[in-house]
Amino acid sequence: MYTIYIDGNLLFSTAQQDDAHIILNPKLSLDIESAGSFSFVIPPGHALHDAIYKMKSIVTVYQDDALIFRGRVLEDERDFYNQKDVYCEGDRSFLLDSLWAEQTVSGTAQDLFRSLISNHNAQVDSEKQFTVGRITAVDANTTYEGEMSVETRRYWDTSTMIEERLISVYGGYIRTRTEGGTTYIDWLEDFE
Q: Residue 127's CB: how many other CB atoms inside 10 A?
């Protein structure tokens, strides 16, 4: 059974298919290397047709009781029949909403990861924040060997900083997960 919510309101459920909660052409793409995506078409008679907000609305997709996708609405284009084509990107894309300014951080690779997430959290709304979870890509004593500061007068988004300064140097991958109402971000060595 699949259940989909938008901003906590029921958008669709395979268990309850009435005209007020029907969506068309749902497509879910889960990718371990990227944020993933979810798209659907919402007809004008849907109860939430006018309650979808670009870059703000949070969409969650559950398979049975397991959360399999969490993200935000990136696009919602109306067609000739007033149907909305909605495209959502996964919550890992929230890391694009914060910037890392030139600064120096010393310590371990794990310290840099924690600093990046803390900096991100200070710049975004609570629904886009992460709690640092498991880190298995590097051990706690791995000293960061790269240049910690970013080029003068240049800002990088947090996602690029993680990719360029951590993943490309030490490997691993980033995973987000939600447990007990808390959204964690993990930096893992291997796929689980």
A: 14
N- to C-terminal Cα separation, the chain: 24
Single-letter amino acid, residue 1:
M
CA distances from 9 to 26, 27, 154, 171 (A): 17, 19, 40, 38
Kindly provide the residue ranges of all beta strands, DSSP E only, lying in 19-170, ordered along the sequence. Answer: 24-29, 37-42, 58-63, 66-78, 84-90, 99-100, 131-135, 156-157
Residue found under tokens 């710049």: 123
Separation between Cα atoms, residue 97 and residue 123, nearest integer Å: 8
Distances in whole angstroms, Cα of residue 88 to Cα of each of 13, 21, 58? 18, 18, 9
Those residues with Cβ within 8 angstroms of residue 70's Cβ, 6 or more apart along the chain or in another chain: 58, 59, 60, 61, 90, 91, 176, 178, 183
Sheet arrangement for strand 2-6: 9-13, 2-6, 58-63, 66-78, 84-90, 37-42, 24-29
What does residue 69 show for φ and ψ, rounded to 5 degrees? Answer: -155, 140
pTM above 0.85, yes or no: yes
pLDDT digits (tens, 9 = 90+) for 90-109: 999 999 999 988 777 778 89
In the block, residue with structure tokens 């990046």: 116
